[in-house]
Automatic annotation (TrEMBL):
The name this protein goes by in its record: Peptidyl-prolyl cis-trans isomerase
Annotated organism of origin: Algoriphagus taiwanensis
Pfam families assigned: FKBP_C (PF00254)
This protein's UniProt keywords: Isomerase, Rotamase, Signal
Segment forming the signal sequence: 1-20
Listed InterPro entries: PPIase_dom_sf (IPR046357), PPIase_FKBP_dom (IPR001179)
SUPFAM superfamilies for the chain: FKBP-like
UniProt EC number: 5.2.1.8
Catalytically driven reaction(s): [protein]-peptidylproline (omega=180) = [protein]-peptidylproline (omega=0)
Family as reported in the entry's similarity comment: Belongs to the FKBP-type PPIase family.
Length: 187
């Protein structure tokens, strides 16, 4: 058989095999709708008291501030360095990660090899998952908020440690400090 024809045949068979394994229930649109329904159910069953709210229901993104500060303070910009305490949960309220030692101990996720302290990173460099960084971009130093978002803004279809694939996530955030980066300089 002609090597080119054999290669084309192999690619076609491989493509057909790969496509036949795609579960139609797992398309991005179906997963997003499933996540949004689960998030809305969670919010109905677990009302979150807040002093301020932000939501994008079409995207399945909800944020509730426990503490809000003066809206005149600088917005967080790409390149700013943040220090943030956080607790990550699944919609079952099971804690999967936290920067706070006592919360880790109380929820059975304590790791004696870990140094529990606020997370410090430069925003916009891909260090944190999309939903986490987007939530921080809406906050100012001194604010505390709870954010809930669909799996596509979290770990998506990839499981990550104790987080199963396609899991909507909840984060309780305490933005302790923001150090302005170069984007705050005037031109």
């Amino acid at each position: 058989m002609n090597p080119r024809l054999k290669a084309l045949f192999t690619v076609l068979i491989g493509s057909f095999a790969a496509l036949s394994c795609v579960d139609p229930d797992q398309t991005q649109e179906v997963l997003l709708e499933r996540d949004k329904e689960a998030i809305e159910k969670y919010l109905l069953e677990n009302p979150i008291p807040s002093v301020k709210e932000f939501s994008e229901p079409v995207e399945g993104f909800y944020m509730f501030w426990e503490v809000s500060v003066d809206p005149e303070l600088n917005n967080l910009l790409r390149g700013d360095t943040v220090r943030v305490d956080y607790t990550g949960k699944l919609l079952s309220n099971k804690v999967f990660d936290t920067s706070i030692e006592q919360i880790a101990r109380d929820n059975g996720v304590f790791d004696s090899n870990r140094n529990y302290q606020p997370l410090r990173f430069a925003v916009g460099n891909g260090f944190a998952i999309t939903g986490f960084e987007f939530a921080l971009s809406l906050m100012r130093a001194g604010e505390k908020a709870t954010v809930i978002f669909p799996s596509r803004l979290g770990y998506g279809s990839q499981p990550n440690g104790p987080v199963p694939a396609n899991s909507p996530l909840i984060f309780e955030l305490d933005l302790i400090e923001v150090k302005n980066g170069l984007n705050h300089l005037n031109p």
